[in-house]
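Teaching assistant's notes for section 4

Start the section by putting this record on the projector. Ask students to predict, before seeing the second block, whether Signal peptide peptidase SppA will look compact or extended. Collect guesses on the board.
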Amino acid sequence: MAEDHTNQQPQQPPQPAEPQGFDAQQSQAYAQGQAQPFAQSQPYGQAQAQQPYGQPGAHQYAQPGCGQQYYAPAAQPVYAAPASRKKNMTPWIVLGVILFAVVFCFTIGAMSCSSAVRSLSNFGMGSVEEELTDGPTVAVIDISGTIQYDGTACSPEGLSSLLNQAEENDDIEAVVLRVDSGGGTATAGEEMAEYVKRFSKPVVVSSASMNCSAAYEISSQADLIYVNKTTDIGAIGTVMQVTDLSELLDKLGISVDNIASAESKDSSYGTRPLTDEERAYYQELIDVTNEVFVENVAEGRSMSLDEARALATGLSFTGEQAVENGLADEVGVFDDAIEAAAQLAGLGSDYNVITLTQSSDLGSLMDLLSESDSDSATSAAAAKLIELLKNEGVLS
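Reveal the predicted structure now:
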């Protein structure tokens, strides 16, 4: 049976509870909406405790019997760097397939597989195209920059790769190192000098503005060194720098505590002066390293050790001075060095000149696609793409 709600009165909203501590006049005013609920008349010091400002979650009954408890907000999460992920080559593969299709749209006639695969290359390193080395060739390797371990031609791994390609290519008869470097790390220079020494074909150095320190150690192993009159060359020497920042740190009020496994482990950190024993130790390291440098120069330049030591002052010479003291052979420009390399290889006047460079397979592909000769560019680009897909496991 349905209930009859016709005569029922609408419910009134509940009246707020009367605040505690109000007198009669305030209570009446509050009921009429003319007073604020916090206008208490209780004596000072007897009001109900309020939640402390800046302490969210505080409640006097949070834990019975434990007094007022304050709940600090949860600590914010610290976002660590995302875990390293394996390089995704899929976009490059897709791009390569697209480029491959575009190239073939402009190719006239069928292209045989044998004509496609014509490049000699190492993945991620430099490459030598057979078309560029068709006949006697002088290869140029550019060593410009700091000698260090960075994978470029200024590094042991980079120079070794390029020299190996020149060694294995029967058309390349000689190499010219175009050097423009102020030096770098001692070990990298020593290793690169060894690679030049082991190279079986003629090597000629063409010095640009600078050929100093570790760069000169490399150059000293060549068959001939060409310089300009104003080339800065030599600077045979080794240096190590240890900066003492202890007094500066004291003035700035900075205290550094080094926790080390041995007394001298922090000797090169710059937070304290070197002891006499540590200074002597580092000096011995420098002397031993420099002796290797001097020995390489003496051997490469057919000097005695005493002659090489006399030139190992750490100072550089002009090109003309270097020719006079035996650190260089001829004053001449880049073209003169190339001609000298060709003569050492017995090439006469009919030879090619190419530059061996460091580049990725994808970069080489892009370069080849920009060639004006569409047929040769297509063949070489196809070879590059096939090699890239094989390295990625897409093709077997």
